[in-house]
Known about the structure:
The protein is of the alpha/beta class. The protein has a single domain, classed as TIM Barrel (Alpha-Beta Barrel). It has 9 helices and 6 strands. A 6-stranded mixed beta sheet has the order 1-2-3-4-5-6. The longest helix has 24 residues, at about 210-234.
Amino acid sequence: AEVLDKIETNGTTELxxxxxxxxxxxxxxxxxxxxxxxxxxxxxxxFLRRNLNSTIPKAFGQAxxxxxxxxxxxxxxxxxxxxxxxxxxxxxxxIDLLAEWVDKLRREGATEINLSDTIGISTAETVGEAFWFLxxxxxxxxxxxxxxxxxxxxxxxxxxxxxxxxxSFDGVLLGGGGCPMTGVALVGxxxxxxxxSYFEERDVPLKINSDEYQKxxxxxxxxxxxxESNFKSx
Length: 234
């Protein structure tokens, strides 16, 4: 609540809160500044067990409840298909399996789905094939790309997503953060500066205030350095 009070959205910025259960969703829905709830669904049973202590059928039921909650509270739901390009657990994965669950979510009212590479396991080929197929199979769904990667291993996958029709990408200032429940060595979220440079090279219009973006990047660097220094001193 204290953080939200300090954020000025000015009518152009929408805030999203990731939730793992109905209790968290109900709390988040009480805040008028939060427009979106995000839910980390997955076609990987192992990921769901580790991340949400859940199963695929149970998590799907949760997604349906969240869709109903959002409809009542005038919020929007972003469903993340975590491990959307494969997984290290030998759980079943295929583009057909993705399409099966996208269709089930669509039938329940989902319109916004982000394919999420939670551990940086995707390739340009799998990314391109997934977006090419799903965007044509489900033209009423707005698909996005949430990529975790090493700092020097992002370009080909972003390029593959863009070239195959994806027009929504997640980025994080300086690439901070990751998913601690995957059970593998962490890779970072895609750094915002990589996305900005990619689209600027292509003259793609961005709804970003350049001056404020630069200030935020500097502030983030200062904050992350302070946190890291405090962590090392403990």
